[in-house]
């Protein structure tokens, strides 16, 4: 059976935030870009971007 995606959620790279998490909670597709690897968390905070791990777990 083919399911049509009806609700999508996209974030350009940003810090994890409750608003995006809530927006994506009931989405069929959620895309959260990430700039930094997990060992660069200080850089990601300074530049207001996410690490890969943060994007995967938000």
UniProtKB/TrEMBL annotation:
<comment type="similarity">
    <text>Belongs to the RNase Z family.</text>
</comment>
<dbReference type="GO" id="GO:1990180">
    <property type="term" value="P:mitochondrial tRNA 3'-end processing"/>
</dbReference>
<protein>
    <recommendedName>
        <fullName>ribonuclease Z</fullName>
        <ecNumber>3.1.26.11</ecNumber>
    </recommendedName>
</protein>
<dbReference type="GO" id="GO:0046872">
    <property type="term" value="F:metal ion binding"/>
</dbReference>
<keyword id="KW-0378">Hydrolase</keyword>
<keyword id="KW-0479">Metal-binding</keyword>
<keyword id="KW-0819">tRNA processing</keyword>
<dbReference type="InterPro" id="IPR036866">
    <property type="entry name" value="RibonucZ/Hydroxyglut_hydro"/>
</dbReference>
<dbReference type="InterPro" id="IPR047151">
    <property type="entry name" value="RNZ2-like"/>
</dbReference>
<keyword id="KW-0540">Nuclease</keyword>
<keyword id="KW-0255">Endonuclease</keyword>
<keyword id="KW-0862">Zinc</keyword>
<dbReference type="GO" id="GO:0042781">
    <property type="term" value="F:3'-tRNA processing endoribonuclease activity"/>
</dbReference>
<dbReference type="GO" id="GO:0005739">
    <property type="term" value="C:mitochondrion"/>
</dbReference>
